[in-house]
Amino acid sequence: MFEFIRHGNTVKVTATDTPTLTEISIICPAGSSRKDMETLALRRLDAFLVRQAEQARAKGYEGQPCPACGKYTLKSSATRVKCDTCGKEMRF
Ligand SMILES: [Zn+2]
Fold it and tell me: CB within 5 A of ion ligand 1: which residues?
């Protein structure tokens, strides 16, 4: 999901990862093509999501977002996965 906001001779591109509601923004020159801006924003968003997953794993969480709230706070035990943020539980 993309949003483009023009400010003078720059464009602010906001990309949103829908499942996790993660948002990042980049600033591009106003002359950039829409496709270039989308590619750049997506790359930045992917890198951000990878970093979030790494940070989650470093804290002992699963490197996957919770399907209910989108936070990287899933903890698994032998029989289930539980989200520390919203408390959603899933059984294997
Ligand atoms: Zn959750």
Answer: 66, 68-69, 83, 85-86, 88
